[in-house]
Specification:
heterodimer, A: 392 residues, alpha/beta, Quinone Oxidoreductase, Chain A, domain 1, Rossmann fold, 2 domains, 7-stranded mixed β-sheet, 14 helices, 15 strands, 20% strand, B: 212 residues, alpha+beta, Alpha-D-Glucose-1,6-Bisphosphate, Chain A, domain 4, 8-stranded antiparallel β-sheet, extended
């Protein structure tokens, strides 16, 4: 079968690879119909997470049709049209039983890297390097999904592939970012990043009761999309002082909750950004947390900062003093896909949120490398490139 | 300062730094060495399984589940009510094999002794209820001897039984909680057979001794 493989830092190519087979009793094989690129893939492609091997198949946000099931699979049937959570979860450990699926004890078969780096190994993630288990990803014609009964969900009829694909990762991640804020109704929420996750976080915050949502980015077309879809307010940090603007927009208080949906390759302007970028480029630090710093500084006293952008290692100039002295609540984590997906599919089905507009650039698998380039450089108003491995 | 004076100062500083770093490394190494007791190395390792103690004991006494779970790894043969014979091989396929005798000493208590294998080993396992309904703590104590020369030099053995114990506990937890132990060694990739071999060695290093 054809698959989009990582061939080295910033090098992708389509290769002929063997088809996956059932290896464990709970496995299912999915014929991939739509597989989205994700901002977190860029960190892998650009070599900021050092656990990629030449030939690894990328992709973790996808949907498709079940073509084979292992002997222990009961809920999912061959022929089901399913969306699959990118986080692998066993369903049997304490974390899964308490719906903290991204912390699953049994789904990362290669835990040594995470154990050394983070103290404990969280769940494995499909197509996400050898630190996350070494699973093959979804930018391929077929993919093996372990614990299929736990991770795959049948999708409502009539919802297009390019819409439902985002229930795999971008939607649950955005939802969890808003869920972390503990909204009770009437809050002002600021969202850093107007990419797929940020757009979904903004909408989720509205659904969960936020009175006003302010989205921060530097790309006018992404900000415009958020305004047009969800009627949010926006700040373009390229020409506005974000801290001052947020203070003014909230009559001096600052947002009640701040959601960071950017991650370890944050952009900013000014000399401190140049310094961070230089340090990261020379591997003196792994992550540049520009937007996290800003969120902590902007958040009102006693407010909540919710981090769903991806971080992997160490950061510097982390304003711990601000977080401590303002008594902030910090919440963060990889999303618990399996907890949120069924509820999100219901919301898509009734039209409360349709993420289909994120799929600005549908492409074939062969165009994958170009698809990532357009996505990384944000060319042509690209929000997400979605690959279709079955397309000619 | 004269140039020879500078040399002395720099040399002295380098020697002191070298000495200090060496001492720190040695200390750190000693901290990571297993305890020693009467010629045996001793380690204690534990893992929490999210099942009640009876279910964990039930796993060991359900021959069919056990055989299925251990399929590629070990065989267990029941000798009498309280004793089993176990033949285990290296799950990574290193060709190492050992035979052990297991004895149940009471509810939730088990001891084993390696009868044939590269290293003399014995151990015991105790099952203790975990707090807050987290399930059961499997607490294992492992004792082993390595060759006399290695022992005198204070070097651990080449086949590190501690790593094997940690891997075994992770496997057992996964089997009890999910009925399977995942493995991504045969997932498709765009690698050549030679690249795949190199990657398998990395997988091995990222797997052995790892804990969740």
């Amino acid at each position: 079968m054809k698959a989009l493989c990582w061939e080295g830092v910033r090098k992708l190519a389509v290769r002929d690879v063997p088809e996956p087979t059932i290896r464990s009793a709970g496995d299912i094989i999915v014929r991939v119909r739509a597989s989205s690129v994700c901002g977190s893939d860029l960190h892998l492609i650009n070599g900021y997470l050092p656990a990629m091997r030449e030939g690894d198949i990328l992709g973790h946000e996808f949907m498709g049709e079940v073509v084979e099931t292992g002997p222990d699979v009961r809920r999912i049937k061959v022929g089901d049209r399913v969306v699959v959570g990118s986080v692998v979860a066993c369903g049997g450990c304490w974390y899964c039983r308490t719906e903290q699926y991204s912390l699953c004890d049994n789904s990362n078969p290669q835990p040594v890297f995470s154990e050394k780096l983070w103290g404990h190994a969280p769940a494995g993630i499909l197509g996400y390097s050898h630190a996350a288990g070494g699973y093959s990803g979804s930018h391929a014609e077929y993919i093996r999904v372990p614990f299929g009964d736990v991770g795959a969900f049948t999708v409502p009829e009539g919802v297009p592939d390019d819409s439902v694909v985002f229930a795999s990762d971008a939607m649950p991640t955005g939802w969890m970012g808003a869920d972390f804020c503990g909204l009770k109704g009437g809050e002002v929420v600021a969202v850093w990043g107007a990419g797929g996750v940020g757009q979904m976080a903004a909408r989720s915050a509205q659904i969960l009761g936020a009175e006003r949502v302010i989205v921060i980015d530097r790309l006018p077309d992404r900000l415009a999309a958020a305004v047009q879809r969800w009627g949010v307010e926006t700040i373009n940090y390229a020409d506005t002082d974000v801290l001052e603007a947020l203070r003014e927009l909230t009559a001096g208080r600052g947002p009640d909750a701040c959601i960071e949906a950017v991650g370890m390759e944050s952009h900013d302007v000014g000399p401190s950004y140049a310094y961070d970028k230089g340090k990261q480029a020379t591997r003196l630090t792994t992550d540049r947390p520009t937007s996290v710093r800003q969120a902590i500084m902007a958040c009102r006293k006693g407010g909540t900062v919710s981090i769903v952008g991806l971080y992997g290692g160490l950061v510097d100039k982390f304003p711990l003093g601000a977080a401590m002295n303002k008594a902030l609540v910090l919440r963060m984590g990889q999303m618990h896909a399996q907890r949120y997906i069924p509820m999100l599919l219901d919301r898509i089905a009734v039209g409360e949120v349709d993420p289909g507009y994120l799929a600005t650039h549908p492409m074939s698998l062969e165009q994958g490398a170009r698809g990532y380039e357009i996505f990384e450089k944000k060319e042509d108003g690209c929000l997400r490139t979605v690959l279709h491995p079955q397309a000619a | 300062m004269t140039s020879s004076g500078t040399r002395w100062v720099l040399g002295g500083a380098a020697t002191l730094t070298g000495f200090g770093v060496g001492r720190m490394v040695a200390r750190r190494r000693r901290r990571h060495q297993p305890d020693r007791e009467g010629g045996w190395y001793v380690v204690h390792r534990g893992i929490t399984v999210h099942r009640p103690r009876d279910a964990v004991i039930g796993f060991w006494t359900d021959q069919e589940r056990l055989d299925r779970g251990l399929a590629e790894w070990a065989t267990l043969e029941r000798l009498d009510d309280n004793r089993w014979r176990c033949v285990a091989s290296d799950p990574a396929g290193g060709g190492t094999e050992w035979r052990a005798e297991l004895t149940v000493d009471g509810p939730g208590r088990l001891t084993w002794r390696v009868t044939e294998g590269p290293i003399a080993q014995r151990g015991r396992v105790e099952l203790v209820p975990a707090p807050q309904d987290r399930g059961t703590e499997i607490r294992a104590e492992l004792r082993w001897r390595s060759g006399r020369i290695r022992r005198v030099l204070g070097l651990a053995s080449r086949h590190d039984p501690d790593l094997a114990l940690r891997s075994a506990l992770r496997r057992i937890k996964s089997l009890i909680e999910t009925g399977q132990v995942l493995d991504t060694r045969h997932d498709p990739s765009g690698r050549s057979p030679k690249q795949e071999q190199a990657t398998d060695r990395i997988r091995e290093a990222l797997t052995v001794g790892g804990r969740p």
